[in-house]
Amino acid sequence: MSDISYRDISVNGLWKNNPAIVQLLGLCPLLAVTGSVINALGMGLATMLVLTISNTCVSMIRSFASDAIRLPAFVMIIAAAVTCIELLMQAFAYELFQILGIFLPLITTNCVILGRADAFACKNKVLPAMYDGFIMGVGFGVILMLLGAVREVIGTGAIFANMDLLFGEGAKAWKIVLVDDYTAVLVAILPPGAFIFTGMIIALKNIIDDGIKKREAAKSVNATPTSRRVRVTGNIS
Q: Which residue ranges traverse the bilayer (predicted)?
């Protein structure tokens, strides 16, 4: 597996094997904290940092960790990374830390992180493992932000509210009100709305994949050389 290219890692993390909409891992934070873009961004950044750090550390110790202590060691590394991220958020984004609440420490039990440590990081060198963690975190975070944007727009008629929780006082002006006097659609902000929109995103991805497969199949059919009948006249001596 060490000969896997960075392009393959990127395509897998962002599209073909996206942890949120293909592997369907990490659904608890996906459904619980994506009521707004800022919440989704905070959780996405935290998950991406933990994935990158844990994959890097797991790859570094892969030659020393026996099978007997492999999984406990991975969990200890992930828990240490989550604790560091929690402390950083308490120091620099305390209000967002409080909003994300229990879902921050629960990153330790996120199947995406332990799955990548066991399936990729412990079998590859440090740089590919670190990049895999980063790109998987980006893929997961993009889906979180997409879901957060859809839910915030439909739920409140505005987007980018409370961005100052992460970017400081100057970001208060980033809020965009799309519809004045908008009647809030409560179901979009609640977990049932997250289920509905997640299903729509998965369905959209499947439609795109089917379209790509059909185009590739049509190209392969057109590229297949047709048999030709060669008419030979005259005598062969």
A: 20-51, 71-93, 99-117, 129-150, 182-204
Indicate the angle between helix axes 111-119 and 70-92, nearest 10 degrees: 130
What sections of the chain are H helices per DSSP? 6-11, 27-32, 37-60, 70-92, 94-100, 111-119, 126-156, 164-167, 186-189, 191-223
> Does residue 64 lie in a domain region?
yes
Domain that holds residue 87: 4-219
Dihedral angle over CA of 87, 94, 169, 167, nearest 10? 40
| 29-77 per-position pLDDT tens digit | 888 899 999 999 999 999 999 999 999 999 999 888 888 888 899 999 9
The pLDDT tens digits of the residues spanning 113-161 come to 999 999 999 999 999 999 999 999 999 999 999 999 999 999 999 999 9
- All residues at 6 or more sequence positions from 164 whose CB lies less than 8 Å from its CB, including other chains: 170, 171, 172
The pLDDT assigned to 237 comes to 47
- Among 124, 143, 129, smallest CA distance to 43 is for 143
On the question of pLDDT at 233 being above 70, the answer is no
In a domain, 226, yes or no: no
On whether the pTM is more than 0.70, the answer is: yes
Q: Are the CB atoms for 161 and 152 separated by under 8 Å?
A: yes
